[in-house]
Specification:
Blueprint (H helix, E strand, L loop, with lengths): L8 E3 L4 H12 L9 H10 L3 E6 L4 E10 L4 E9 L8 H10 L9 E3 L7 H5 L18
Parallel strand pairs: 4-5
Antiparallel strand pairs: 1-2, 2-3, 3-4
Helix pairs in contact: 1-2
The protein binds coenzyme A.
């Protein structure tokens, strides 16, 4: 099967089978590894905008991102993942372009995400900056 991103369809929700595929995608990445299906189903019920690229040839989920926003000031973007065999085909660029031009997300004051240092050049392509003097990313865990 050729990997042509032009045939992919943007969907805003997942079928139960595609939720299983999302759980599988999550097992491949360091920050999502170990996520359980029940929690991913909870995520899908509560998440903000979902961006899912589906290959209509087999209804497979091949790229995913999600966001949370208040609609005015802040949007946080999470879990940006392209399925491994589809990487370096321009799909990551398409996924990010789709997120960044989303009518809801593009109108809020700040779009924010966090990432490892080696991903900074990737996100700089869309105008993200890590030049935020004095700000610290903080977390409290259960
Ligand atoms: C990061 C990721 C989404 C990129 O998707 P992709 O389909 O490979 O990206 P593309 O083929 O569209 O490449 C787009 C551009 O980003 C660049 N790029 C891709 N991965 C990169 C990386 N890890 N670091 C820096 N630049 C990167 C490409 O070189 C390309 O640049 P160009 O357009 O100037 O040639 C994908 O590699 C992925 O899912 N990685 C694992 C999950 C992950 O780390 N997500 C990000 C968490 S913060």
């Amino acid at each position: 099967m050729t990997l042509d991103k032009n045939r992919l369809e943007l969907r805003r929700d997942l079928t139960p089978v595609q939720v299983d595929q999302l759980v599988d995608l999550f097992q491949q990445e360091w920050w999502t590894k170990g996520r359980q299906k029940a929690d991913v189903e909870k995520l899908m019920r509560n998440a903000g905008p979902i961006f899912a690229f589906i290959d209509p040839l087999n209804e497979e989920l091949v790229a995913f991102a999600r966001a949370m926003t208040d609609g005015a000031y802040k949007a946080m973007i999470f879990d940006i993942i392209v399925k491994d065999i589809w990487r370096n085909t321009g799909l990551g660029r398409l996924l990010m372009a789709t997120v960044m031009t989303d009518p809801l997300l593009s109108q809020v004051k700040h779009r924010e995400l966090y990432c490892l240092e080696d991903m900074v050049p990737f996100y700089e392509k869309w105008g993200f900056t890590a030049d935020l003097p004095g700000l610290f990313f903080m977390r409290q865990s259960t």
